[in-house]
Amino acid sequence: MKEFIESIIEIILEDVSCDHQIEEEYSGGPAFDDVAYSLNDEKAVIRKCVEAIPARLIERPEITEGFIDKKATELHDKLWPGEKCGGQCNRQREIKDFLSSLLNELAAKINLIER
């Protein structure tokens, strides 16, 4: 993750402009430099920053309980098309528990790879 942050900082620094305006103090004291920073092309910087982050870190599907229930029901209905139990039978609960543990295990392995 550190390398992505560093590349984003480089993208921003490449586009930053710095305007200096010498301001004089009201009481006749010494002048001071009033610096204003801005981006030359904000939209291009945002686009480049988004492109610098791999899609696998941005486009993760959210795995919810509803998603797991839906997929368990789909698999149950494919395996036993004539048996409609509305999520109440033991087979469907076993499928749901299996899918949930499988997704948790895969998420843990993905997190290890990213570090």
How does this structure look, described?
The chain has 115 residues and is of the alpha+beta class. It has 5 helices and 2 strands, in the order αββαααα. A two-stranded antiparallel sheet has the order 1-2. The longest helix is centred in the C-terminal third of the chain and has 25 residues. The radius of gyration is 27 Å and the shape is rod-shaped.
In short:
With 115 residues, this protein is of the alpha+beta class. It is 60% helix and 16% strand.
Integer average pLDDT: 78
Helix content: 55-70%
What is the quaternary state of this protein? Answer: single chain
* Estimated radius of gyration: 27 Å
Largest sheet: 2 strands, antiparallel
**Could you tell me the strand content as a percent range?**
15-25%
Number of β-strand runs? 2
Secondary structure tally, helices: 5
Please give the order of strands in the largest beta sheet.
1-2
Structural category: alpha+beta
Report the uncertain regions: none
Please trace the helix and strand order, writing H or E for each element.
HEEHHHH
Shape: rod-shaped
Distance between the termini: 8 Å
Labels describing this entry:
rod-shaped, about 120 residues, alpha+beta
Secondary structure blueprint with pairings:
Layout: H1 2-15, E1 16-24, E2 31-39, H2 42-52, H3 55-58, H4 65-79, H5 90-114
Antiparallel strand pairs: 1-2
